[in-house]
């Protein structure tokens, strides 16, 4: 699953340039969230990738921003394969597990159950982590590793909660069309695990007249204003 950053309007049949291929962002196991703490520009959202890089995208309107967030998260929820089993190690140092970039082979019903199981596991592990820290005063490197682990568990809890909630809505809607999924979310009128209620907006499928556009202000790779295209 790849999000291509393009400076010019998408043109069907036109090959991607070397720069556009270089600036592509893999969105497997990614999570898009509204940048509520970012005030320099309006309609900005974060995209955190599987390797924990963070990109900032600016959309032209609130509706477009909400659509980008929803569609990126729905696609990631649909196609991100289950994580590899945790590696066995004698080291106490915390390290984030590797996440597979290949698309899942599970059905969407199985995918939802996997996300829900991981959500439950992340909640349990986060409680255990916090309980183990009670009454302890770690310092230096140990304290930093504990902070990193808690941040990781919090993020994974949010990610799997978002994935499961969105896929449940998609399955209930009974459609593969993202417009239909957005309409179902809007009709529900709720925020599923931090996902804003979306509004009707253009499809992620390439379309010259209705392609949603966002400007990337994030970390490497850098890119200017561009449209996003998904490659499963």
UniProtKB/TrEMBL annotation:
<dbReference type="InterPro" id="IPR001849">
    <property type="entry name" value="PH_domain"/>
</dbReference>
<keyword id="KW-0175">Coiled coil</keyword>
<protein>
    <submittedName>
        <fullName>Pleckstrin and Sec7 domain containing</fullName>
    </submittedName>
</protein>
<dbReference type="InterPro" id="IPR011993">
    <property type="entry name" value="PH-like_dom_sf"/>
</dbReference>
<dbReference type="InterPro" id="IPR041681">
    <property type="entry name" value="PH_9"/>
</dbReference>
<feature type="compositionally biased region" description="Polar residues">
    <location>
        <begin position="198"/>
        <end position="213"/>
    </location>
</feature>
<feature type="domain" description="PH">
    <location>
        <begin position="1"/>
        <end position="77"/>
    </location>
</feature>
<feature type="coiled-coil region">
    <location>
        <begin position="105"/>
        <end position="132"/>
    </location>
</feature>
<feature type="region of interest" description="Disordered">
    <location>
        <begin position="186"/>
        <end position="232"/>
    </location>
</feature>
<dbReference type="Pfam" id="PF15410">
    <property type="entry name" value="PH_9"/>
</dbReference>
